[in-house]
Amino acid sequence: MQQDILINWSPQETRVAIIEHGAVQELHVERTLERGLVGNVYLGKVARVLPGMQSAFVDIGLERAAFLHVADLHGARPHEEHGNRHGQPAVPIEKQVFEGQPLMVQVIKDPIGTKGARLSTQISIAGRLLVFLPGDDHVGVSQKIPGEQRDALRSRLTNLVGTPATGGGGGFILRTNGEDASDAELADDISYLRKTWARIKDAALRLPAGSLLHQDLSLLRRVLRDLVTEGTQTIRIDSREQFGILKAFGEEFMPQAAAKLQQYKGERPIFDLFNVDEEIARALGRRVDLKSGGYLIVDQTEALTTIDVNTGGFVGARNFDDTIFRTNLEAAGAIARQLRLRNLGGIIIVDFIDMQREDHRDAVLAEFRKQLARDRVKTMAGGFSQLGLVEMTRKRTRESLAHMLCEPCEWCHGAGQVKTARSVAYDILREILREARQFNPREYRVVASPRVVELFLDEESQHLAGLSDFIGKPISLQSENAMGQEQYDIVLL
Fold this sequence. Notes:
This protein has helices spanning 147-161, 183-206, 219-227, 240-253, 255-258, 276-283, 320-342, 358-372, 401-405, 421-436, 450-457, 461-471, and strands at residues 3-10, 13-20, 23-31, 41-50, 55-59, 66-69, 102-109, 118-120, 125-126, 130-133, 139-141, 171-174, 211-214, 232-237, 261-263, 287-289, 295-300, 304-310, 346-351, 379-384, 390-394, 444-448, 475-479, 488-492. The chain is α+β, with helices and mostly antiparallel strands.
C-alpha cells in the first residue's frame, strides 16, 4: 500500500498525517506539554497491593497511581495468569510485591479517562531494527517476516547477540524493518540498545522512587522508526530546522527512511494539500457521510464505541436488498478508516443494516476484515451475532483523537444533551414551592439563563403568577448570560 506522510511541526504541537489513495488514513498528534507515556521507564514505588484483583497500584510520580496486573510482572505469561504450564497455580501478586517496594516499570498503556497508566515490569527498549528485552534471554523474529526466512535470521541474530560469557546477554526481537539489515547494522543497533539499558540501570541506582529513567522517542523521530513502511513514498515536513534535525537522526539510525525525507517549502500550509484539517473536523463529529448517500453514526463512550450504519438517501440499486448490501459494503471500508483516523480502541460494536441473504452477510464481513487487516494496530472481529451486530476489539494504547483534542462540555458534562428550558422552569417552580414551606422571605428572586427567563415572561407567565398568588409572595426574575441552561439560583430577599 503506497502512502505519503505529512508532518506539520510547531513549537507547541507536532501533527502527522498518513495519506493513502489521496485520503487521510491516520492522524497522530503530540503536544509538547502532553507527551504520551507509552515506552517510558520509571523507578516506581508500590503504593497498594490488591490481592482480590491480583494487581497493584504503583506511584510513578504522576497525578494518578499506575496499574500493574500480575500478568504483567516479569516472568508471567498469558497462560500463567491462573496457573502455569505444569498445572501449578501462579504465584499470587501479594507474594511477589509489597507496599513501599521500589520497582522498575514501563508504561504499556497511557492514562485514558479516569484510568491510570498500565505498567509492566518486563522492560523493552525499541531500536531501529531490534527490540531489546533486558530481563529475557530469548532471540525472536517478527511474525510478519515470512516463515522460511525466520530461522536463518534468528540464527544470524543469535550469533551477533552472543552470551553472557562473551559480554552478551538479554533478549532481542528482530523488527520487520530489520529483515534486510546487514550484520554491521544489527550489531550497531545491539550496541545502541545495550548502552541505553546501561544508562537506565545507572539512573535507577542514583535517582529516587517516582523518577523517569528513560523516555521514548518523540513523535517526530517515531515517524522514521515506526510509521515508515516499504510503501512509503515521501515524508514531507514543513519546518526547516526540524528537517535538519530529523535528517541527521535518520541518517545515523534509519538511512532508508531518511532518504524519503523532504522539506516542504510550499506557500500553502502542508495540511491543506489533502484537506487534513477538514478531515480532523469531520472525525470529531458523530455523523460520517458515505459517497452513496448512506451515513454512519459513531458514538464513543468510556465502556465501548458503537457504530450504526444507515442507508440515508441511497436508492441507486435495483432493489432494496441490493441497496442495503452496497451500503454495508461501502460502510465496511469507511468504518475501518474511521477506526484508524479517530484512533478508536477497546470494544467496538458495529450495527450494519440487516441483510436477509447469507452470502451478502459473508461478503460484507469478508470486506470488513480485509479493510481491518490494513491497520497497523491489532484488531479482532467476530461474525454477525443473533441480533445482527458485529463485535470487535482494537488494541488501545493511547487516547483517541476526540479525547486528545476535545473535553466534555461544561454544561452537559459529556452527556450530549441538556434539559429543555421548560423542564428547568418547572424545576424552579417546584423549588420555590419547597422553599416557601420552610422559609418566610419578603420576596423570591429567580436568577437563570436568558432562555428560561424569557419562557417565564412569555409562555409560563401564568404559571409563575399563579404560584406567586398561592404562596403570597412576589417572584422577580433576573437573566444571567453566564449561566448554562440547567443552572439557576433562587435568592430569598
